[in-house]
Input
Amino acid sequence: MYRIAKYQERIKEFENHEHIKSLRSEIGILRMMLEEKFNSLNGTTDQESNHNLILAMPLIADHIIKIEKLVKSCNTIEMQLGQYLDKGTVIQIANEIVNVVDSYVEDETIKEKISDEIIQIIERSEPNLK
Output
């Protein structure tokens, strides 16, 4: 009961936080921990480094599995909350942006360059679109 009373205020902060359903911070923390684990495996020789890596493999593998599960959970939550845009929606938004630009810009060359840059942005973002 003492611990609950002691941390009650902090618990309320977490409960009421606007990003409570986001797991992105936790993913970042786990990835930093994995990076630190790899950084700590350096030995004085390549053989010693390889030995340290082999000894650490169960912990590393477990850590990778935890990151994977957390990423999947994060994606699921974000999809359920409607925080993802599908490719069709992104293209529709891009078309509307191009139409706005078209109504204000008369130079066809500039309009074409703007349109091309928007397409390039979408293409670079494509692996993140669902």
Q: What stands out?
A: The chain has two domains: 1-84, 85-130. The CA atoms of residues 4 and 10 lie 10 Å apart.
